[in-house]
Specification:
Blueprint lengths: L5 E4 L1 E5 L3 E5 L2 H4 L6 E5 L8 E6 L4 E7 L2 E7 L2 E7 L4 E5 L4 E5 L6 E6 L8 E2 L2 H12 L9 H22 L6 H14 L3 E5 L2 H11 L7 E5 L4 H9 L3 E5 L20 E5 L10 H11 L2 E5 L7 E2 L2 E2 L6 E5 L13 E5 L2 H10 L4 E3 L2 E2 L10 H10 L3 H19 L14 E2 L5 E4 L5 H10 L29 H9 E4 L7 H21 L1
Parallel strand pairs: 14-15, 14-16, 16-17, 17-20
Antiparallel strand pairs: 1-9, 2-3, 4-11, 5-10, 5-12, 6-9, 6-11, 7-8, 7-10, 13-21, 18-19, 18-24, 20-21, 22-23, 25-26
Helix pairs in contact: 3-9, 4-9, 5-6, 5-8, 10-13
The chain binds pyridoxal-5'-phosphate (PLP).
Length: about 525
């Protein structure tokens, strides 16, 4: 994502007595740790240098003295920078051809580099560089996700964080977790965030901390991922399903008919990163004196009216499973709440029922977000708004360009919601889904189905005695949904490649009729 060269101002402090001091810090000013520094100087007049590309190396180039012109080429574009002051630098991302010219006699060019010297990282031949560049921009296949690119971009910084945590030798319930909990609570606009081992545990802990158990009923959307239901069943309560809106979120119109004397809470999911209609849900809950929780496991940063998902109810669960909008490097989760009682009980529940070590007040379990995950998530969190914006930008390409296809249905979002497109779902006619998916595969396009069997028809729910036909909207979603590639690290070209393939399939289909 960060592949555009950029001129930066280097933080400079000046005093009358002692001149100027300029500072470059990896974490604050660069997107990479500095592994190597070299400088170019004593250049004879009119000598040009460079004439090579780097595949992975990232650099920050500063003329600490004199003047030089830096020309860069990559991703089909050219850039030129005049470097003539020690408080200016150019960030050169990986994969650019570079040439330096117009050196003044006194030029000293300092290069801060992200890696050690590695001959294999160089491309010396310009034609070879063009082939490398074209290979990156020519799309021949599109993976469902592009998570490896995030890792490539931040590889060195993530490794640095990992090393720091290893060195600290405090691996569970330490300062890294505390810091992340503070940051994520602030991000969602809640008072408390409590890290857990995963999203399912966060849901279960919320229910237990709210005294929901055997004999109680919790209303859940029939569209969605099984974890929401499993959490209710794991605390011994009964999930009561209501049919969903076409895109899987709970249909508020169906809720009141499902309320009984045993109902304790409503637990909507913000499925695919699209906020559920919380105002309607909350007003029904208020009328019947019920708690409201959110399954926000797919909705990090999604907004509904004036609030952020995670702050729209009594408590919310998040997952940091690697593919999530804020995904870690293993399992992880948390709950957010502004309810002190839920927060305090949840803190005990996640750690053997103890608020003070070895003093076990309640029957808890072991479900904690470890220091390594917390530290890595803390590093990633500031990028989440940018990634979500990119998801929205790519989703709008789909929404605009696929709307001409009469046979498919595209997700509908209310103006008062800002989704985060954890998934970009479309619905295709159910008798064409297999052929459509085969077409994507033949065109080397990844896809997913969320989810092929509606929850009420899953074998693990058979004791609830639902049957086919009970929730027609959820069943239709299960039969027709296809998730198209969407990742903040996908390029516009890649999404356009998918769009072209989708259009081609349906043009061919309509030609058959
Ligand atoms: C809607 C929803 N709820 C709950 C979960 C459970 O999260 P985890 O996998 O971290 O347990 C997920 C994760 O896939 C999810 O998508």
């Amino acid at each position: 994502m960060n592949n555009i060269p950029k001129l930066i101002d280097i933080e400079t402090h000046r005093t009358e007595q002692s001149g100027s001091l300029s500072v470059i810090q990896s974490n604050t000013h660069l997107n990479f740790p500095i592994r190597r520094v070299y400088y170019i100087h004593s250049i004879e007049d009119d000598k040009a240098r460079g004439f090579h590309g780097h595949k992975k190396l990232q650099q920050c180039i500063v003329a600490t003295s004199g003047h030089v012109t830096l020309s860069l080429e990559g991703y089909g574009k050219t850039y030129s920078f005049e470097l003539d002051a020690p408080n200016k630098g150019v960030l050169v991302p990986a994969g650019y051809w570079r040439e330096m010219s117009n050196f003044s006699n006194d030029a000293v060019l300092m290069v801060l580099a992200s890696d050690d010297y590695e001959p294999k990282d160089y491309i010396h031949d310009k034609q070879e560089f063009y082939a490398f560049d074209a290979n990156r921009t020519n799309v021949e296949k599109v993976g469902y996700l592009a998570m490896h690119r995030r890792y490539e971009e931040f590889r060195l910084q993530l490794q640095q964080v990992t090393e720091e945590v290893l060195d600290e030798t405090s691996y569970i319930m330490g300062p890294r977790l505390e810091k992340f909990e503070e940051s994520f609570a602030e991000f969602t606009g809640t008072k408390y965030c409590i890290g857990t081992g995963n999203g399912l545990d966060a849901l279960e802990i919320i229910l237990r901390a709210s005294d929901i158990g055997a004999g109680d009923e919790v209303i859940v959307s029939a569209g969605g991922f099984i974890a929401t239901l499993l959490a209710v069943m794991r605390v011994g309560a009964t999930p009561v399903l209501v049919d969903c809106t076409p895109w899987g979120n709970i249909n508020p119109v169906k809720i009141e008919a499902a309320i009984t004397n045993h109902t304790k809470a409503i637990l909507p999911t913000h499925l695919y990163g699209i906020p559920a209609e919380m105002d309607e849900v909350r007003s029904i809950a208020q009328k019947h004196n019920l708690l409201v929780f959110e399954d926000a496991c797919q909705a990090h940063g999604a907004e509904y009216k004036d609030g952020t998902c995670g702050a729209l109810s009594d408590a919310a669960a998040f997952s940091f499973y690697p593919t999530k909008n804020l995904g870690g490097f293993g399992d992880g989760g948390c709950l957010t709440t502004s309810n002190e009682k839920i927060a305090q009980t949840a803190k005990k529940l996640r750690s053997y029922g103890a608020a003070i070590k070895y003093h076990h007040e309640i029957v808890g379990f072991n479900s904690r977000l470890d220091e390594m995950q917390a530290a890595l998530l803390q590093f990633l969190l500031p990028y989440l708004p940018e990634w979500n914006a990119k998801r929205r930008e790519l989703a709008s390409l789909y929404l605009n360009q696929l709307s001409v296809i009469e046979e498919i249905e595209l997700p509908v979002v209310h103006d008062h919601s800002t989704p985060v497109w954890h998934v970009f779902p479309i619905m295709v006619p159910k008798d064409k889904r297999d052929a459509f998916c085969n077409h994507l595969t033949k065109n080397h396009i990844g896809y997913n189905i969320h989810y092929p069997l509606a929850m009420h028809l899953q074998p693990c729910c058979s004791h609830l005695q639902y049957k086919a036909g009970d929730f027609p909207v959820a069943e239709k979603l299960a039969a027709c949904e296809v998730s198209l590639p969407l990742d903040p690290y996908h390029t516009t070209e890649e999404i356009n490649f998918v769009i072209k393939a989708v259009l081609a399939f349906f043009e061919h289909e309509s030609a058959k009729n």
